[in-house]
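Weekly sync notes, structure subgroup
Attendees: PM, AL, DS (notes)

Item 1: joint prediction request from the bench team. They want all three components modeled as one assembly rather than separately. Inputs as received:
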Amino acid sequence: MTDFRVEGRGRVNRAKPVSFTFDGETYRGFEGDTVASALLANGVHLMGRSFKYHRPRGVVTAGSDEPNALVGTTRGKGRFEPNTRATIQEIYPGLTTESQNKWPSLKFDLGAINDRLYMLFSAGFYYKTFMWPRSFWDSVYEPLIRKAAGLGKAPTEVDPDHYASRYLHCDVLVIGSGPSGIAAALTAGRAGSKVVLVDETAEMGGTLLSEPSVSIDGRPAWDWLAGAMAELDAMPNVRRMTRTTATGYYHQNMIGMVQKLTDHMGDVPEGAPRERMWRVRAKEVVLAQGAIERPMVFDGNDCPGVMLAGAAQTFLNRFGVLVGKQPVVLTSHDSAWYSAFDMADAGAKVVAIVDTRESVPQALQNDARARGIPIHLGHTATATKGRLRVAALRINPVHNGKVGAEKMLSCDAVLVCGGWTPSLHLFSHTKGSLDWDAEAKAYLPGHKTEDVHIAGAGRGLWGIAAALEDGTKAGADAVRSLGGSAGAATFEVADDRTGSGITQKELPTDRSPGKAKAFVDFQNDVTAKDIRLAVREGMKSIEHVKRYTTNGMATDQGKLSNMNGLTIAADALGKEAPQVGLTTFRPPYTPTTFGAFAGYHKGAHFEVTRKTPIDDWAEENGAEYEPVALWRRAWYFPQAGEDMHKAVARECKATRESVGIFDASTLGKIEVSGPDATEFMNRMYTNPWTKLGVGRARYGLLLGEDGFIRDDGVIGRMRDDLFHVTTTTGGAARVLNMMEDYLQTEWPDLRVWLTSTTEEWATIALNGPNARKLLQPFVEGADISADAMPHMSVVECTVAGFPSRLFRISFTGELGFEINVPARHGRVLWEKLWDAGQQYDICPYGTETMHVLRAEKGFIIVGQDTDGTVTPEDAGIGWAIGKKKIDFVGKRSLDRPDIVAKGRKQLVGLLTDDPKTVLTEGAQIVADPNQPKPMKMIGHVTSSYWSEVLGRSIAMALVEGGFDRMDDRLHIPTETGGTVTAKVTGTQFYDPAGERLKVE
Amino acid sequence: MLLIQCPYCDDALPELEFAYAGEAHIDRPQDPSALSDEEWRDFLFIRSNVKGVHAERWRHINGCGRFFNALRDTVSDRFVTSYKAGEPRPDTSGKEPAQ
Amino acid sequence: MNAPVTSFDAVSVAVLPPVARFNLRIAPADLAVASRIFGLTLPAKIGEGARNGDRAAYCIGPDEWLLHAAEVDQSAIMSGFDTARAETPHSITVLSDREIIIGITGPAAIDLLSTCCPLDLSRMAVGHAKRTVFDYAQVVLIRDGDDAFRLEVWRSFFPHVHGLLEIGVRELAIGL
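Output from the run, pasted for the record:
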């Protein structure tokens, strides 16, 4: 089968044959092969179908710029990946690959009917074809387009692989390990800089791997390369990374790099990460990414077997594979001549070298003649013959713009070269300017915005000697920028292959250009004709042409097509290329997995899950959880057979009748300390603090400067100069930040310090008529009797021997205590109270019961009953404002015209006419259910529960002018089309006089 | 990800340690009650939305905890300089953005 | 507390026993007072640390110090500062339970920390400490040696941070 493998050529390991499958058939290659090189070695060029027309396509390149040879790879369950470039994927034993965009088979594809209907699919076809009838869009066009569109098929299973991340800091990052990159790394490494050298392929060397005939410093290229690698590896300050693609270049020399760790392995170590995202901060960057060869644009240029000449040279020299035995070379650049020579020297019968130029260096012509290769100068190519594989190339002489008589050249491959485009994608990410070089007919790096050096073919230089020289200079420049010193190295290069060429639009033809399928963008099936059509239809900017034709918008981001597209568009517009502009390259440089971006953030680490010191107990006792900010909190504790409704009803009842225990550890806690603490509190909170005695507590209300409620919580005075502030769970960090902001930037004269103690304390709330009876025996150092410790007070004591800040407060309307103990003792104390509480049928309750109990009392939850537009008056808690205070944060806003205006939304109670109906939170409220749609919505339900103690539903709502609507009936349309009617009430549904707090 | 110079730590540190905090040099009035509704509105809501060099507040929230001010070019997203809270805006006319 | 250890030869991650920990806030001008009470000269520059036996002090903000001491000394230290408060205003808060301390040691310690910490750790001097981030969690990172670090993380973030460190150790052990 290995008909096309050439003995003595290539770097694959002939001692290690590797079997893999492609479309169910088994093929053999060698260790070091890519899927593309191994298939080519077996004579397979046809590797896929195109996206739009389903045309047969073969491999075009030998690298990451490949537009056609995209395959699906599989490695067991959940490990399917579409659109893998066959030119990058290395083979390993057992690798399974399949072609894409074909049905039923690659060789016979029904979708190829699109190719016959190509008139329908010309530029802008989406915009033109599917416009009528309108009703067809949802039912017919869109589903069809969705089914037909897209490259490959998306995986359907959860990705079981691991992905890793790492930060890396270095002096000099060198991207690309061709001759210029290696020279830069050697130079900077020798100077002692911390160097990182990366390459996207499996082996370093770049062009050198494809040019073994060159000699450097008197040694064959590959010997020199081995020596350079050994020298770099011997330097402790140099790190070499292969299979690592720099995908994005961000501010201040931060480069994102994706390293493929296991995709080349037959046996993947258990638990190994598949890829690693490196976030590199480099002081200096050297871009040595080389240049990308351009195809030529002519009818049939996408036939399998038509490929880039440089790629053919790489397949031969790096992989030992002849891509054809009778190739024709079609070029406008000297470089392809050398490809022809290498092919001939390896045993191919080169049918001809066809050059569009009339004048070519004599030396090249002599070398061709010496090998017996016929030469056709000043010729164009006008068609290919063959469908699944090229069989002949039609060429014609061009003289004074006139296309002459045709000639057919039988062949099994056409090796093309339309010139080389400096690879400046990463440079473009930095917003560095690309300047048009009229002589090179290329965009070259201009103004730089980062500490970056571009070396070698990336800035239009040609030949290995020039690349080495430029690379060492870039390395030395980088070292000097770092304040070091480095001399540029010198390299003696023999048998270098320098050259030049021209850039051109689609090749001239003697046939109707309107019928030519001359592809510019292979991946998105864009032809030269499409680009000219776009210009005719009024697209004048290259950005418009790009979007209208989709040229350069496929996963290869136009690596092959952008310059050809620009040249053709410029010609159609009658302008020079720089006047038409250049589209912007954006990260990532090559397609990147979501896994690499996600890194460790999946499963349990998708985001932080904060857990309290009592979380384990809740888990062991069957709690259901709900997320609150980043915390997971016990939501309710269902017993056997209970749903949430039943469990919550039971927890509410138990707490109101005897005692409930609740984990309140997530409440934010801030220590406000210092001689000016009272003044600070007076300025921050709406309430007055001066007269609050030590050992007493008060409900505190915090506004934004705009007058709207931001947070609330109970605040205890521990000393004259020390407050224990509590905040909502979700507001803890925000409140501390806001306090720090005022303290540091508005009132730096105040001697106050703030410390978060949220997690220093575990907080256990006991609520219910038996709360004191349960707690009393554990308390030492304080009298917690009703007389000694009234409602809203705080004392320092020990509870079960643990130092404690003990609050008597209530968020339920029942007798309540909140016990703060050092966090490590939280669970122990909980269990002691739990054991002792059995005599009172103690009941653990979660956040849902807490919400119900507080709603029965009309206590608000900031963020649920308020939404950032609610003032204290709106919420019915205007009493919390210190009326005599001259100023506090937000005070001035309470006099703003909009705040004092009539008709503001105000927080009221709602009692449904049918006591069994529980309103939906968030439901909209209307005054008249019979008004035409769209109805005027006058408010919404903020809290709604079943109240077990009241035997009916209760709700709170923000309603326009709500306080003036007492006893009115309002209507709440439901999602099922009905309407619920409810009466407007106050918000204190249960024990409005507060009798239940007075338990002796 | 940017590197941000913290004037208190005297070091350029990863953006992940910092939090943006709005436009700088907007002082809370000494006596808000003395302001007209319009003046108070301007204090609350009206911001300059500069295209170019913008004076803004940052907090080294995952570092030393300090609020400070910085000049940043909103076009290039590059910092010109940073300085401590309470210090006047430095004159940077003609100065190139810091790298 | 039990000290679960995750390790292979290049790096180990251990949960360290708690110590008495305090957050001290005081005007830099009054630093000498605090140094006298604590019995250790407090460093004046952000990032710097000082250590003597059980006592350690790290400057983590312009007026903020993290103090470490033996647990048995906790109340004596609080009393000492209490006595001085009227004369020299300051704030001292016990935080012995707020954070859990994780020790990370071994030649691959920096590699492990670099999975989730964006700082250039090679620039951090031995004996220094700084508040920074590890993934989404705020932490205080202390460098005890070339290959030895301590990470102090808020208790509720501990499962997240420790879980990531365990993943990192496994990853480093595989060696890819």
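Discussion: The interface with chain C takes residues 1, 8-11, 13-14, 16-17, 61-66 of chain B (CB under 8 Å).
Action: AL to compare against the crosslinking data before next sync.
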